[in-house]
């Protein structure tokens, strides 16, 4: 459909318009019609929804404008040249030098016609028309003695000729038609740009997840989007055009209809907690309305949780590779060789090693060199999560699975590790029910969320680790034998530090350089005899203990050179701290047993595991393990 409608009230203008349209090359943009007066008004109303602008002339243009049409109208002007041409013709038709001319015209045709008539010697009488119905009345009033010729539009000339008067119509020149068409083209282009912007804004409003309401300066609702309908449970047609105070009495808009923004207004509406923001709409300095946006607080919280979950999932990455596992001993080199070998296959791996030997370091390195390296690496310390929570953490749960479950449930760690690796550290501390569920996941490659009735397929490689002899744990009935053999497909034994003493000095030097730079200390040197002290120490905490020992040595060292005596003193102090809680205390010092210390710490901290572990000077995972060993039950009330 053409965007410009040219409505010609007579055939002469129709043909003239057609020629000018072709000259300007606007055939594809302009549709030309022949209609005048009331028929032209009906046509214009019909074209309102399909075109951008109408071009018309004279009384027909006046009628279309008065009909309050909703699109712009460009009027073909009556120029001085056109009037001069009409006056010249009037002299020719009447053969009079100063003819008496009666001109019937609307106000928009009058212009400066009186001045032009004086210049050309025309005896002019102007009859201004308010409507087309006035034309017959004025013609009846004309007398042949006072009128030589009548000038006007098509209807005026037709009726005048019937009454016996000489008459000529005013015609627009090509220049006027051309000017009107070019102006219409500019308006059409402007309206196209305006429509595109309007549609963009409309799409943003309609598809926004926020409720959006716009009101004018009279506080009547002009915009009410789909989200607003949903959140307020109101139909758009029931709201548009209504006073905002009547539609939303719970929001005292009169208090906010000033020049300032009002953010974070919380209202509870129909069991929903909504947060409103109100901002004025200003044009220059005038406030012409206000914009109200609002959201469901619950949905904001859910979105935040989702984003947080996605961010966390992107952090399930490895930091270490086999190059970060330091040492030159044949024992550690063999362990690394085996680790690199098993990286290339996709079978389950069980890593044996004492605490502090670097089991997770090996697990991350295996993942980093495997075909799953671009997938997530999810590490779980089975000893750090209480048994009653371990199942929901590993396998997830659905909405309403238990009291306190979040809405829409929660994805389990196995699901988060899909197409990646899950590392189950301290697997020996998993309770028997969790072991049975883990066995099914390993066999069936699918998980069922807590409280659900369907399985979710998962593609996960499992790497487990333990610091215990699992065969002895199986003999005690605390670990499933079938699970052990399901995990024990590929195994890696990480040697303790005391069995690779050749690496102690190398590791100590590495940690010395690292912590010296980290804490910006002066270069510290360790004597040969001091290094000998390090190699004779048992290092029950293995590499981790050595690393933290060197860190402390760098921080508290008084001298730049650490002698063998200095090293001996520091090692004695380290041994005291390491064994503070590990053995039965000496009766000569009247110290409580380890179990009694734990019970006392739990009492003082009201069974807060984190605080109790801090008070005892151990990790939470270590405390959980000791609680199981001593069969100490923690009773906490969950809200």
From TrEMBL:
GO BP terms, alphabetized: regulation of DNA-templated transcription
Domain PAS: 197-249
InterPro entries in the cross-refs: AAA+_ATPase (IPR003593), AAA_lid_NorR (IPR058031), Homeodomain-like_sf (IPR009057), HTH_Fis (IPR002197), P-loop_NTPase (IPR027417), PAS (IPR000014), PAS-like_dom_sf (IPR035965), Sig_transdc_resp-reg_PrpR_N (IPR010524)
Gene Ontology MF term list: ATP binding; phosphorelay response regulator activity; sequence-specific DNA binding
Sequence ranges assigned to domain Sigma-54 factor interaction in this UniProt record: 325-555
SUPFAM superfamilies named among the record's database cross-references: Homeodomain-like, P-loop containing nucleoside triphosphate hydrolases, PrpR receptor domain-like, PYP-like sensor domain (PAS domain)
UniProt keyword list: ATP-binding, Nucleotide-binding, Transcription, Transcription regulation
Protein name per Swiss-Prot or TrEMBL: Transcriptional regulator with PAS, ATPase and Fis domain
Protein species of origin: Priestia aryabhattai (Bacillus aryabhattai)
């Amino acid at each position: 459909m053409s965007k410009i409608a040219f409505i010609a009230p007579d055939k002469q203008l129709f043909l003239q318009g057609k020629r000018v349209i072709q000259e300007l090359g606007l055939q594809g943009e302009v549709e030309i019609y022949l209609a005048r007066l009331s028929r032209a008004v009906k046509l214009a109303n019909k074209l309102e929804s399909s075109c951008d602008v109408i071009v018309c002339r004279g009384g027909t243009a006046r009628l279309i404008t008065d009909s309050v049409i909703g699109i712009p109208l460009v009027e073909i002007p009556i120029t001085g040249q056109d009037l001069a041409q009409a006056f010249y013709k009037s002299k020719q038709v009447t053969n009079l030098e100063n003819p008496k001319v009666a001109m019937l015209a609307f106000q928009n045709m009058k212009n400066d016609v009186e001045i032009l008539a004086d210049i050309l010697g025309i005896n002019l009488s102007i009859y201004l028309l308010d409507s087309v119905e006035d034309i017959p009345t004025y013609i009846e009033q004309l007398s042949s003695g006072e009128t030589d010729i009548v000038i006007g539009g098509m209807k005026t000339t037709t009726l005048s000729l019937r009454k016996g008067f000489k008459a000529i119509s005013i015609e627009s020149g090509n220049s006027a038609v051309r000017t009107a068409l070019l102006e219409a083209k500019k308006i059409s282009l402007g309206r196209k740009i305006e429509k595109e912007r309007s549609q963009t804004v409309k799409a943003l409003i309609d598809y926004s997840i926020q409720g959006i309401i716009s009101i004018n300066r009279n506080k009547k609702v002009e915009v009410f989007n789909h989200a607003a309908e949903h959140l307020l449970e109101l139909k758009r047609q029931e709201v548009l055009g209504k006073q905002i105070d009547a539609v939303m009495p719970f929001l005292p808009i009169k208090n906010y209809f000033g020049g300032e923004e009002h953010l974070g207004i919380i209202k509870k509406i129909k069991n929903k907690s909504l947060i409103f923001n109100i901002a004025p709409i200003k044009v220059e300095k005038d406030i012409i309305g206000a914009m109200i946006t609002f959201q469901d607080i619950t949905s904001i919280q859910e979105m935040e949780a989702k984003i947080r979950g996605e961010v966390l999932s992107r952090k399930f990455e490895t930091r270490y590779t086999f190059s970060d596992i330091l040492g030159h001993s044949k024992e550690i080199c063999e362990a690394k060789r085996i680790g690199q070998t098993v990286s290339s296959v996709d079978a389950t791996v069980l890593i044996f090693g004492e605490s502090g030997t670097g089991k997770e370091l090996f697990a991350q390195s295996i993942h980093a060199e495997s075909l799953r390296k671009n997938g997530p690496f999810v590490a779980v310390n089975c000893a750090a999560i209480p048994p009653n929570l371990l199942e929901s953490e590993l396998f997830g749960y659905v909405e309403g699975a238990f009291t306190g479950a979040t809405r829409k449930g929660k994805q389990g760690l196995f699901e988060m590790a899909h197409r990646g690796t899950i590392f189950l550290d301290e697997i020996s501390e998993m309770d028997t029910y969790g072991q049975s569920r883990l066995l099914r996941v390993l066999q069936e490659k699918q998980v069922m969320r807590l409280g659900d009735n369907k399985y979710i397929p998962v593609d996960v490689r499992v790497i487990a680790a333990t610091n215990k002899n699992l065969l002895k744990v199986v003999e005690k009935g605390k670990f499933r034998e079938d699970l052990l053999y399901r995990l024990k497909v590929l195994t890696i034994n990480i040697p303790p530090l005391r069995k690779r003493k050749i690496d102690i000095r190398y590791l100590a030097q590495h940690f010395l350089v690292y912590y010296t730079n980290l804490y910006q200390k002066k270069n510290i040197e360790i004597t040969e005899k001091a290094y000998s002290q390090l190699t004779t120490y048992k290092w029950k905490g293995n590499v981790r203990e050595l690393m933290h020992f060197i860190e402390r040595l760098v921080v508290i060292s008084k001298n730049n050179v650490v002698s063998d005596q200095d090293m001996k003193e520091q090692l004695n102090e380290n041994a005291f701290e390491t064994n503070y809680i590990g053995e039965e205390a000496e009766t000569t010092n009247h110290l409580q047993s380890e179990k009694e210390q734990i019970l006392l710490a739990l009492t003082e901290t009201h069974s807060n595991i984190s605080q109790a572990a801090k008070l005892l000077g151990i990790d939470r995972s270590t405390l959980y393990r000791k609680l199981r060993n001593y069969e100490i039950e923690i009773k906490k009330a969950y809200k």
